[in-house]
Amino acid sequence: MLAVTYSAALFGIDAFIIDIECDGNRDIPDFKIVGLPDLTVKESEKRVTTALRSLGAEIPDMSITVNLAPADRKKEGSALDLGIFAAVCRCASLIPDAALAEKCFIGELSFTGEVRPVKGVLSMAIAAAENGKRDIFVPYSNLREASAAAGDGARVYGVRSVSELVAHLRGKAEISPVTKRPEDIITGDSTLASGDFSEIKGQSRAKRAVEIAAAGGHNILLIGPPGSGKSMIAKRIPTILPRLTFDEAVTTTKIHSAAGILNCDDGIIKNRPFRAPHHSLSIAALVGGGRTPIPGEISLAHGGVLFLDEFPEFTKNAMEALRAPLEDGEVTITRAAGRATFPSKFMLACAMNPCRCGYYGSKRGKCSCTRSDVNQYLSRLSGPMLDRIDIQIEMPELDFSELSDTAPGESSAAIRERVEAAREASRLRFKAAGYKDWKTKSNSAMSAEDIRRDCRLDDGCFKLIETAFSQMNLSARAYDRILKVARTVADVSHAASGGRPDEPAPIEKKHVMEAIQMRSLEKYWGR
User: Fold this and answer.
1) What residues are paired with 136 via a beta bridge?
2) Rounded to an integer, what distance in angstroms lies between the CA atom of residue 347 and that of residue 345?
3) What's CA 125's distance to the chain center, in Å?
4) Model pTM greater than 0.85?
5) How far apart are CA 415 and CA 402, in angstroms?
């Protein structure tokens, strides 16, 4: 007897459908799996046969051969267990043939017949729905995650055990499906339990710079002595970023699920990620890799913030590995098994001391570094890397009056309102320009054509930036990034004054001046 079921396998963050063809004949008992299975897939034989015994059923004396198509693609992981089990059940006449039509089975089996969760379920469920599979069976623990793929004729079922699945396929006890996306998946707050901007003492200039960075999606570098609040401010950036759109949430969830770090109880991710890796991490941990590529920190930060504290302490190779993803918004990992492309559109936030001891420029005269020591410390940051950081802001030491001030500062909610208004203004411009991704595009991603169209300068602004270009020895990339920041400053100022997003907000001289002043590293470099 020949039985055909369907499952899915993961490569990178994308999935592909697998046809499971099971041939069972009365012969010497045997069980083979072909079609480039890895060791985990080969071991599925033991899990499937033992799970069958948990039903009180035994496989008849049959020679069973399972083919996984396409046969020229490597199959990895335990998510094929449930599909192989369903095919074997059909060959053993435990379920009717019609019960397998247009169905996809995803999940790992235990010896007791429990269906265990697997990683990458959302990607696999989406692939199944896109390939016309109307009924998608997933582990019950993964149901909230997979339910984002429900709708448009696709039904998602959460399965706790093989006995529950067999009863459903026999028509004896139906499992209730999810037929549309639950409302709480699409809606929700994207704030984090990481504090509020109202808790930050002083540092008004740094808070203003972070607001501009959040509004335009700009990369930012915070420079200051220990205890000035660099990390405290950086950890609160997600609380002022715009809320995730549904498409952003799905992509972010796919990445975290493929990496195996998604909390099954949370389902789809609603909060913008905040990743803060230690400076000792490897290149593979940063950009992704492995025999079968998995996402690295830059992809896990997609849609959110990648915070690199003690920035100069990261290895040179790690810093340079960031350059291409910062420009392209994605990273491609090539291995013998194929190529995997991971999204990596994130806001880079870095923090550093001005020198090795941390107190260069301190009003209290604590610094013990020579000018040569300072230059050597700063030389760890390459010019091309710094060119990709739009905003470089200095954070001085706090004085006693600022520390003892008990009045709360402006809340994250109030700042976020201006950020979202500024983002809406940029979205409307990108929509008018015909961009398909206008809902998620930000000022930091403006092309040269966008700059010419949306960053027009009057004579006063032009002369100001011309002077800055010559005196600060700016590169062409730094020049473009100053214009992008000036565009965002104009949008935020327009929003703060009560202007509507659909109203024009021209770039003024004060906006250009503020954008230029947000490049504090020029001071330390002695240019």
Assistant:
1) 104, 156
2) 7
3) 19
4) yes
5) 20
Measured CA distances, 152 to 15, 128, 131, 156, 235 (Å): 19, 12, 12, 11, 39
Residue 334 and residue 260: Cα distance in Å, rounded?
A: 20
**3-state SS class at 8:** strand
Q: Are the CB atoms for 34 and 66 separated by under 8 Å?
A: yes
b/e 304-332 (16+ beta carbons within 10 angstroms → b) = bbbbbbebbebeeebbebbeebbeeeebe
pLDDT, one tens digit per residue, over 391-439 is 999 998 888 777 777 778 899 999 999 999 999 999 999 999 999 989 8
Whole-number Å distance between alpha carbons of 56 and 47 = 15
Q: Does residue 84 fall inside a structural domain?
A: yes
Cβ pair 8, 41 in contact under 8 A: no
Picking from 166, 176, 64, the residue whose alpha carbon sits closest to that of residue 113 is 166
Cβ within 8 Å of residue 462, ≥6 positions away: none
| CB-CB contact of 82 with 66 (8 Å) | no
Measure CA of the first residue to CA of the last residue in the chain; give whole Å: 79
Domain that holds residue 93: 2-181
The residue type found at 225 is P
pLDDT above 50 for 526: no
User: Which class for 504: exposed (0-12), middle (13-18), buried (19 or more C-beta within 10 A)?
Assistant: exposed
Residue with structure tokens 């109030």? Answer: 414
Residue 11's DSSP bridge partners are 14
pLDDT digits (tens, 9 = 90+) for 270-294: 889 999 999 999 999 999 988 888 9
**Each residue's pLDDT tens digit, 10-27:** 999 999 999 999 998 877
pLDDT tens profile 69-119: 999 999 999 999 999 999 999 988 899 988 898 899 999 999 999 999 999
Provide the pLDDT confidence category of residue 189 given band limits of 50, 70 and 90. Answer: low
- Let me know the angle formed at the C-alpha of 116 by 112 and 117, rounded to the nearest 5 degrees: 175
CATH number at residue 125: 3.30.230.10
Residue 51 belongs to a domain: yes
pLDDT band at 352; cut points 50, 70, 90: very high
DSSP per-residue letters across 281-341: --HHHHHEETTTTEE-HHHHTTTSEEEESSGGGS-HHHHHHTHHHHHHSEEEEEETTEEEE
Percent of the chain beyond pLDDT 90?
A: 63
User: Which pLDDT score, from 0 to 100, does residue 475 have?
Assistant: 83
Q: Is residue 440 in some structural domain?
A: no
% of the chain residues with pLDDT over 70: 95
Please name the amino acid found at residue 88.
V
Q: Do the beta carbons of residue 259 and residue 344 sit within 8 Å?
A: no
Beta strands 103-105 and 135-139: pairing type? parallel
Query: Is 146 a member of any domain?
Result: yes
CB atoms within 10 A of CB 155: 20
Distance CA 23, CA 274 (A): 49
Number of domains in the chain: 1
